[in-house]
Amino acid sequence: MKTKPNVQIRHDLRPEYDFAQMKGGVRGKYAKAYRKGTNLVLLAPDVAKQFPDERSVNNALRVLMRVSRRVVARARQTPRRRRRRVNGSLS
């Protein structure tokens, strides 16, 4: 017959926590939103001053995306010209 290993359970919670008095706790309350892919980002204080709400942040990021797409597209269209050295300096 196998004997059970002598394992002590370590309780990290402080004794003053009384979960019996807590009310309103719902298991999995935010699980649906988490599975959906909630995307939270913490802004630095100086950035948060410039963007007071999510709409302004999203608008600024959309503008940045549009500009970067144009820059990349333009870079792909025009062939790069090589600079030639003339008398030791670039021209």
Characteristics:
4% strand, 2 strands, 91 residues, mainly alpha, two-stranded antiparallel ribbon
Describe the structure.
This protein is mainly α. The chain has a domain at 48-78. It has helices spanning 31-36, 45-50, 54-77, and strands at residues 85-86, 89-90. A two-stranded antiparallel ribbon has the order 1-2. 0% of the residues are buried. The model has no long low-confidence stretch (mean pLDDT 81).
- How helix-rich are the residues, as a percent range? 25-40%
Q: Note the beta-strand portion.
A: under 5%
* Mean pLDDT level: 81
Radius of gyration: 29 Å
Measured between the Cα atoms of the first and last residue, the distance is 88 Å
Label the overall shape: elongated
Helical stretch tally? 3
Reported for the largest beta sheet, the result is:
2 strands, antiparallel
Please tally the β strands and state the result: 2
Supply the helix-strand structural class.
Answer: mainly alpha
Given as residue ranges, the uncertain stretches (5+ residues, pLDDT < 50) are none
Across the major sheet, the strand order is 1-2
Topology:
Blueprint: H1 31-36, H2 45-50, H3 54-77, E1 85-86, E2 89-90
Antiparallel strand pairs: 1-2
